[in-house]
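README: folding subset

This subset contains proteins for which both the sequence and a predicted structure token string are available. Records are stored as plain text. Below is the entry for Helicase ATP-binding domain-containing protein (113 residues), shown exactly as it appears on disk.
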Amino acid sequence: MAVMGSGETLTFWLPMLYQKGTTFIIVPLKNLGKQMADVAASLKLTSASVTCNTLTKLLLKAIENHEYRIITISPELIVDPHFWGLWKQKSWCKGMDQIIVDEFHCIDGWGGC
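--- output ---
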């Protein structure tokens, strides 16, 4: 485990520069998701930070149309019914490159198993 801010997330940024599909980054904190979306934008990668405050029909439609390369999202929202329809569509999933869980060591505290 690295100290926060030491650059450990850079390990998953490099492949995103060369891939063409969508990457979901699951983050435990809204401000961390926003920060990552801002970094992606600075790298000229279209990005969205999805939170309960930003989730709209317009944003969902943009995600469905693969308008964003990088999407940061909370663990709770990634399993929200709004996204289940997308996860079930093989054609939509073909546009996915990867799903990354940042701060994985915190997963126990997220209320899961």
